[in-house]
Design a protein that fits this description.
Layout (H helix, E strand, L loop, with lengths): L8 E4 L5 H17 L6 H13 L3 E8 L2 E13 L3 E11 L8 H15 L4 E4 L3 H7 L1 H7 L17
């Protein structure tokens, strides 16, 4: 009888872990390409390093057979209304490992980290590309996320 594959481990990414840092950049680059973002890999690497050095941020990998196959990033901010609130900024699982529960496990790990930091809630932004390709709003609703009546607007600052 063939042995069942071992489930992937969820591993927090440390600032000093250069090997996994490179793998994380590769996963995020693939994710951004799939989601039609134009962020260059150099900027992804720089911003990831900043996140890893910031205690208000968290990054974790899903690792299967010693290979990173998924990633989640979380940032937190303080608000007058909610106190500390977390945002899942990025969630990606490589195509060959999808539909195995890894995304759910990465989100659960992100929620656990957020609770440990005293966050009052966790939110996520679903892009049109993510919705069209993966019906992400349905995925997050199944995990107890709810749509809000708020509209998010943003501005890119020059520089």
């Amino acid at each position: 009888m063939q042995a069942m594959p071992r489930p992937a481990d969820i591993v927090e990414l440390a600032p000093s872990s250069t090997g996994t840092h490179s793998a994380a950049v590769d996963l995020l680059t693939r994710f951004f390409h799939e989601e039609e973002f134009s962020t260059p890999p150099r900027r992804i690497a720089e911003n990831l390093q900043r996140m890893l050095a910031d205690p208000a941020c968290w990054v974790a990998l899903a690792v299967a057979d010693a290979q990173p196959v998924g990633i989640v990033t979380v940032t937190t901010m303080l608000y007058v209304e909610w106190g500390r609130l977390a945002e899942i900024g990025d969630l990606y699982v490589v195509p060959g490992h999808r539909r195995q529960g890894l995304a759910r496990r990465l989100v659960a790990a992100a929620i656990g980290w957020s609770k440990e930091r005293g966050c009052s809630g966790v939110y996520v932004t679903v892009t049109p590309a993510g919705e069209a390709r993966h019906q992400l709003s349905g995925f997050y609703r199944r995990l107890a996320f709810e749509a809000t009546a708020r509209t998010t607007l943003s501005m890119t600052l020059p520089g």
